């Protein structure tokens, strides 16, 4: 059986299919990405990270141009959601991507830039071995968009629209406890204001800040509920700080899949957390070809 190399990895159990594609040979049509991310009929994942250098993606026409601050030789995280849609940024994904580059020898430095459609994302790899890593990602500007609402589990919540390169609605519910959060039914997509979020939105529900920490669940655009969302934890941290009358600080965000640390300073965020590389294998060429 011949096939296409892949790896599986996750950041606080937000999991990804990692696809090395240095010559950008793969046509990542939405249906093919969805088939790969399918948890029964495919490899399974919340998303897919194609690994290629920025210049190769521009040469292949996948990118029109290198985003500002991203060099042709910088590795670029070409992120796709499980439904095959393209998203601008993936915070947990950048940690796994950076860990993968180090663990496979594609990068040898502890600090380097990862390219994304949201721009340059500088990373610091604090430690990494084949299986586990600890990475800090420079998440760029956190831009508040004003308040909007989402309706889920029969209730309408007010939240803060936040752009972290991709769109979020972070709903701090003052009366919410961790137990009530855990009991929320997130099996169906929240109803949101499509005029406010014309390109869809990732919706976070979180407890108010206590002892420098919040509890959060998230319903992701193009995926559904995930056990974690890195850009979502940044949006949640910014909303929790705002709700506490602050514009900067450190927030520990507890998600279903673990815990990350977010720092917001001067309107710019950093995200620190774990990465795990679970397995590597091959996608069978005949299986891939049958997708048409
Ligand atoms: N899981 C990702 C977010 C993916 C965002 C995607 N669902 C979208 O914006 O459409 C993260 O760790 O930031």
From TrEMBL:
Q: Which UniProt keywords apply?
A: Amino-acid biosynthesis, Cytoplasm, Isomerase, Lysine biosynthesis
One GO term describing the cellular component: cytosol
Binding locations of substrate: 14, 81, 91-92, 166, 202, 220-221, 230-231
Annotated metabolic or biological route of this protein: Amino-acid biosynthesis; L-lysine biosynthesis via DAP pathway; DL-2,6-diaminopimelate from LL-2,6-diaminopimelate: step 1/1
Q: Which residues cross the membrane?
A: none
Active site per database record? 90 (proton donor), 90, 229 (proton acceptor)
Which InterPro entries does the record cross-reference, listed alphabetically? DAP_epimerase_AS, DAP_epimerase_DapF
Q: What is its main location?
A: cytoplasm
Q: What is its EC number?
A: 5.1.1.7
Q: Name one GO biological process term.
A: lysine biosynthetic process via diaminopimelate
A GO MF label: diaminopimelate epimerase activity
Q: Please list the reactions this protein catalyses.
A: (2S,6S)-2,6-diaminopimelate = meso-2,6-diaminopimelate
Q: Which PROSITE patterns match?
A: DAP_EPIMERASE (PS01326)
**Enzyme class of the recorded protein, top EC level:** isomerase
Give coiled-coil spans as residue ranges: none
Which HAMAP family does this one have? Answer: DAP_epimerase
PANTHER family, per database record? DIAMINOPIMELATE EPIMERASE, DIAMINOPIMELATE EPIMERASE, CHLOROPLASTIC
Q: How does it assemble?
A: Homodimer.
Q: What does this protein do?
A: Catalyzes the stereoinversion of LL-2,6-diaminopimelate (L,L-DAP) to meso-diaminopimelate (meso-DAP), a precursor of L-lysine and an essential component of the bacterial peptidoglycan.
Q: What's the protein called, per UniProt?
A: Diaminopimelate epimerase
Query: Which organism was this protein described from?
Result: Rhodococcus tukisamuensis
Q: Give the organism's phylogenetic lineage.
A: Bacteria, Bacillati, Actinomycetota, Actinomycetes, Mycobacteriales
